[in-house]
Amino acid sequence: MEFPEALDRLGFTLAEERREARLYASRPNRYLTYWVHAFDDGTALFTWEFAIADYLAERGIQVGSNEELNTYLYPREDARGPQEAGWLAGALDEAEARLAGVRLDAPEGQGS
């Protein structure tokens, strides 16, 4: 499967074209956005952002002093790899597993 077809199948749409890359976005829910930067050299960068302040505000919780800088969660490191469907699927799986593992009620991993 070609990379553009994989992007389409995984719900990504072209968000912006830059001189050195095309940016694709997928929004699986109103708080989470996945981004793929497809570079002209055949590599891709995968990252995500989660609107944590909006998510928590709807639950009556505030982040810090509610400053603009505290509004999104990001991965500590972005994933970079080839423009291949399998690589992208793996990057998505890893992001979903990391996000699913966040437990505010059990930060040390102890279930309640």
Distance between the termini: 43 Å
The residue ranges in which pLDDT falls below 50 over 5 or more consecutive positions are none
Radius of gyration: 16 Å
- Measured by DSSP, the beta-strand proportion falls in 25-35%
Q: Could you spell the SSE succession in H and E letters?
A: HEEEEHEH
Instruction: Calculate the mean pLDDT score and round it.
Output: 91
Strand order of the largest sheet: 1-2-3-4-5
Largest sheet: 5 strands, antiparallel
Count, helices: 3
Helix-residue proportion: 25-40%
Describe the 3D structure.
With 112 residues, the protein is an alpha+beta fold. The protein has a domain at 3-50 and 76-100. Helix content is 26%, strand content 28%. Strands 1-2-3-4-5 form a 5-stranded antiparallel beta sheet, covered by helices on one side. Strand 2 (21-26) and strand 3 form a beta hairpin. The termini are far apart.
Please give the structural blueprint:
Elements: H1 3-9, E1 13-17, E2 21-26, E3 32-39, E4 43-50, H2 52-57, E5 79-82, H3 85-100
Antiparallel strand pairs: 1-2, 2-3, 3-4, 4-5
